[in-house]
Amino acid sequence: MKNHAFTIRLRDEAAAEKYIALHKEVWPEIVGPGGALETIGVRKLQIFHIDPLTLFMYVEAEDHFEPVRDFLRANDLHPRVQEWDDMMHDGGGSLLVRHPGNDGRLNWAPMRRIHHVDFTNTLPDLEDK
After folding, report:
1. Residues of the chain with pLDDT under 70
2. Do the Cβ atoms of 110 and 5 come closer than 8 Å?
3. Which InterPro entries does the annotation name (predicted)?
């Protein structure tokens, strides 16, 4: 297993309210058994919100998971996945906006781990200890 962290900004307060409401019932084509996230190798995913308008996403995934390749591939797995992604990221009505300086292929900016503590020795992916 590998872990990954990402961040992104919410467009405004109205977008934050809508984003949080939508995530109370994410579509099964995305998070259900056999859905896009499971298919691309994601095993755990958590999203956290902090004001002002910032999200943090933590992902644990299979070793073969590569965020750019697999998150983009997820959109091709089912039209509803692409529809969801478009609501989040596409155009002026999107809920999310990139962090300044994030010019990567993913809208969510990858974050670098700078510290860890693991008394259980179960924290995955610690090649940069």
Report:
1. 124-129
2. yes
3. Carb_Metab_Mutarotase, Dimeric_a/b-barrel, Rham/fucose_mutarotase
